[in-house]
Amino acid sequence: MSRLFGTDGVRGLANGLLTAELALQLAQAAAVVLGHDRTPDGKRPRAVVARDPRASGEFLAAAVEAGLSSSGIDVYDAGVLPTPAAAYLVADLDADFGVMLSASHNPAPDNGIKFFARGGQKLPDHVEDAIEAQLGKEPERPIGGDVGRIQRFSDAEDRYIVHLLGTLPHRLEGIKVVLDCAHGAASGCSPQVFKDAGAEVVVIGAEPDGLNINDGVGSTHLGPLKEAVVAHGADLGIAHDGDADRCLAVDHEGNEVDGDQIMAILALALKDAGKLKDNVLVATVMSNLGLKIALRNAGISIRETAVGDRYVLEEMRAGGFNLGGEQSGHVIFSDYATTGDGVLTGLQIAAQVAKTGRTLQDLATAMTKLPQLMINVKGVDKARAATDEGVAAAVAAAELELGDTGRVLLRPSGTEALVRVMVEAADMATAERICTSLAAVVKKRLGSEVAA
């Protein structure tokens, strides 16, 4: 049987894979694994529960809260909140753990359940495995005064906003910002915190109806934001995804500023302020080589990890580093958050525009993106990609040709029978030629069909 927990909790079609019954059982299992320590004074363990505005989140949250409270866990029902806000509240309220219901950037029919440990930390694999192993076993069944109680936590969003305002290095008076909230969890708090910080705010994608989350808006659909920024003469635009754990930006001319460029801007700003721990940025192998070149020239080194914000977090914790992230826009400020926070990231970017008086477009020139091409080679025996001699020889030849002006990355998919072939080079023609050639070798050696 395949593992129920994926790279970011349990995720799938609501009422398909993710039923109310499964949500209840996961909550009961988590109550045993995460809520087993009773406090010395006999108080019950406490958990924070939050969700994004998907329609299915209503019945799934009810199931989770039933599973927790029936197992003797007191519940803070925080309502609709961004994922990083839920993580923050777990720490702020000194709760034993937290539960977030969201499928992030996925369409509305999907949903997911992820757990946070004490302090708002993501769970390591072995704890998720323990929760999964507990499924099907007899749950805790306290009676009388030992059952958990459910408390509606009405000021959850306000607490999060106050926390975010406390992270600002500079207020935002004098700049105009367009926010695209993806009809998601940040539709209330993101516009409010930007206004409280002093910015003039234009808002799109902030009318969630339970079914329109990520639908043609947000960080995976930047078109509406680009148009709005230009139409309103704004200084910049900020795009969230459904649960606001990521952020992409748009400059005043409507050009995208991706996660790599955002990390370059913020790493340099922190270094200049003497606040970048050990002058290190943690990024994944998918970050553009241009980021590494630019930061190296500025005296900042990059620690590379596997793809996934959980691996970025692990490296940050291991080294005590305070800035990391992904090209997709997950940016982690460990001084202020335990996970990627799109609202926090957007505020920090806007603060640099306000503080320096430079345009976002100008700030983004901190790095020059190398042309990058990726081809998905489908139907492949991906297990042999790292050991096949013919593939290895082709990669070595490509790396020799590129030298210091580019790189090659072959990455088997974690969920599909395919290998991703990625090439960066000094110009797109070279990237296309080498990437196409390598994809053909992978096809021939491992038996597949090529699809870009």
UniProtKB/TrEMBL annotation:
Species this chain originates from: Arthrobacter cavernae
Cofactor(s) in the UniProt record: Mg(2+)
Protein name per UniProt: Phosphoglucosamine mutase
Gene3D superfamilies, per database record: Alpha-D-Glucose-1,6-Bisphosphate, subunit A, domain 3, Alpha-D-phosphohexomutase, C-terminal domain
EC number per UniProt: 5.4.2.10
Entry similarity comment: Belongs to the phosphohexose mutase family.
Biological processes per GO annotation: carbohydrate metabolic process; peptidoglycan biosynthetic process; UDP-N-acetylglucosamine biosynthetic process
Superkingdom of origin: Bacteria
Binding note for cofactor: Binds 1 Mg(2+) ion per subunit.
Keywords (A to Z) from UniProt: Isomerase, Magnesium, Metal-binding, Phosphoprotein
Catalysed conversion reaction: alpha-D-glucosamine 1-phosphate = D-glucosamine 6-phosphate
Cellular component annotations (GO), alphabetically ordered: cytosol
Function: Catalyzes the conversion of glucosamine-6-phosphate to glucosamine-1-phosphate.
EC top class, as a word: isomerase
Domain Alpha-D-phosphohexomutase alpha/beta/alpha: start-end pairs: 3-139, 159-254, 258-367
Residues recorded with modification Phosphoserine: S104
